Amino acid sequence: MVEPKSKVESIREWVVDHKLRTVGCLWLSGIAGSIAYNWSQPGMKTSVKIIHARLHAQALTLAALAGAAAVEYYDHRNATKPDPYAKFLPVDGYSRKE
To answer: Per the database record, which ranges form the HIG1 domain (predicted)?
Structure first.
């Protein structure tokens, strides 16, 4: 009998299947949080606050992309899933001519 997946395993599987959506949501939440934080800091011009928010979100996005690359590498190395592109590439379709 198959055990039901834990909540953490279910979230991990969703993140693996939707890497770009996860990175985009992380960027959006990063820029929103950074803008909220910078708006609470008095004595800075609005343009500086926006630039700081963009820089913070960009750093967070780079970290998320590095994490997504690490997850992709781990999945390919451990071969937890079959190749997702195998159904699009025919095995005998490209014969070599000698």
So the answer is: 1-83
